[in-house]
């Protein structure tokens, strides 16, 4: 699997990444055996970029991912985690987490983008994963904490990067406007953009993507299925879009895109994975995976050829924006 270098850093990521929220029991229980098998399948398929966070399962994802990678050669893979939510004892547990993960709530999340909070978060992550270092650290969802994140958390990460403790730093969010500020105004090397450059939402063209190009920085695309609506060949009523039930008009739009995909010999989920990679600022697509079967399906979809003519047709039918830049996949720079 091809690798792409994060500019001005020593870090290279494979073009497909393993998102580890699912093995943290996002929405439903995943067994320890299935979680380990998923990481094994990803490794066997050549995936060498793995993303996790304390938020995912109140540390369960970090525990499981660290254990699954423990015996792998450390210099052969890249792992990212996040800072901004400390895990602290919960003095009023209800028995189950209330933020989407099927785990006990003996811990709770506490927002903290201070320097000390970031350092403590990273120490806790290293303890949970059992790893000696992290390759990439993102500030996680600092939507309501810009000032502290920009003035304290990012300088703390930059200092660790200068010391060689971290390879690359950035921020990860579901919105593009604030990520644009991180790229423009802070020491961030890259951002993880969730759901804002997809077949159904190209709003990142207005800010974060051109800013990344202007400043020689890069973007990791996540949430490319928009919470599920783009994950099946034929979208149906009741599917999710951005964590909510998809509005009927978006279901109709996804079906129209699926029709075009069929005419071009591909599928909606294959096109959803391929679409962000056509933008020159995007170096990786990271997909959530919880079982070996999901890994194998995603790898197969990622490997499918999606003809450039498909994007032209989608633009002609006003199903994607007319200003979507389409790079010839065969001529995009790669590192192996």
Helix content: 25-40%
CATH class: Alpha Beta
Q: Which structural class is indicated by helix and strand composition? A: alpha/beta
CATH architecture verdict = Alpha-Beta Barrel
Rg calc: 19 Å
- Helix and strand sequence: EEEHEHEEEHEHEHEHEEEHHEHH
CATH fold name: TIM Barrel
Structure, described:
- With 336 residues, the chain is an alpha/beta fold.
- The chain contains ten helices and 14 strands.
- The protein has helices at 32-44, 60-69, 115-129, 146-162, 177-185, 208-214, 248-263, 268-277, 292-303, 308-316, and strands at 3-5, 12-14, 16-19, 49-51, 78-83, 85-89, 107-111, 136-140, 168-173, 190-194, 218-222, 240-241, 244-245, 282-288.
- The strands form four sheets. An eight-stranded parallel barrel has the order 3-4-5-8-9-10-11-14, surrounded by six helices.
- It starts with a strand and ends in a 20-residue tail after the last helix.
- The model is unreliable at 329-336 (pLDDT under 50).
Write the SSE topology.
Blueprint: E1 3-5, E2 12-14, E3 16-19, H1 32-44, E4 49-51, H2 60-69, E5 78-83, E6 85-89, E7 107-111, H3 115-129, E8 136-140, H4 146-162, E9 168-173, H5 177-185, E10 190-194, H6 208-214, E11 218-222, E12 240-241, E13 244-245, H7 248-263, H8 268-277, E14 282-288, H9 292-303, H10 308-316
Parallel strand pairs: 3-4, 3-14, 4-5, 5-8, 8-9, 9-10, 10-11, 11-14
Antiparallel strand pairs: 1-2, 6-7, 12-13
């Amino acid at each position: 699997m091809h690798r792409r270098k994060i500019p001005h850093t020593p870090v290279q990521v494979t073009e497909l990444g393993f998102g580890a929220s699912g093995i943290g029991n996002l929405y439903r229980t995943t067994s320890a055996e299935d979680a380990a098998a998923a990481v094994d399948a990803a490794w066997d398929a050549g995936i060498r970029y793995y993303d996790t966070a304390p938020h995912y399962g109140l540390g369960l994802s970090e525990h499981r991912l660290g254990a699954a990678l423990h015996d792998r050669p450390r210099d052969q893979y890249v792992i990212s985690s996040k800072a901004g939510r400390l895990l602290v004892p919960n003095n009023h547990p209800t028995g189950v987490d209330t933020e989407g993960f099927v785990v006990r709530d003996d811990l709770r999340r506490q927002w903290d983008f201070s320097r000390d909070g970031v350092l403590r978060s990273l120490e806790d992550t290293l303890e949970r994963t059992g790893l000696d270092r992290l390759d990439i650290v993102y500030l996680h969802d600092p939507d309501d904490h810009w000032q502290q994140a920009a003035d304290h958390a990012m300088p703390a990460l930059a200092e660790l990067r200068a010391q060689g403790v971290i390879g690359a730093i950035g921020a990860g969010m579901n919105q593009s406007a604030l990520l644009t500020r991180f790229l423009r105004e802070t020491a961030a090397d890259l951002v993880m953009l969730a759901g804002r450059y997809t077949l159904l939402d190209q709003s990142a063209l207005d800010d974060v993507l051109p800013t990344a190009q202007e400043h020689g920085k890069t973007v990791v695309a996540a949430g490319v299925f928009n919470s599920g609506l783009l994950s099946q060949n034929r979208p149906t009523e009741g599917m999710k879009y951005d964590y909510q039930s998809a509005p009927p008009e978006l279901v109709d739009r996804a079906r129209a895109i699926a029709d075009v995909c069929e005419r071009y010999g591909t599928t909606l989920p294959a096109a959803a994975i391929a679409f962000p990679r056509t933008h020159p600022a995007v170096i990786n697509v990271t997909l959530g995976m919880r079982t070996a079967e999901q890994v194998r399906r995603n790898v197969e979809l990622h490997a499918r050829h999606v003809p450039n003519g498909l994007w032209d047709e989608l633009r002609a039918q006003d199903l994607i924006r007319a200003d979507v830049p389409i790079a010839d996949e065969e001529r995009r720079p790669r590192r192996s």
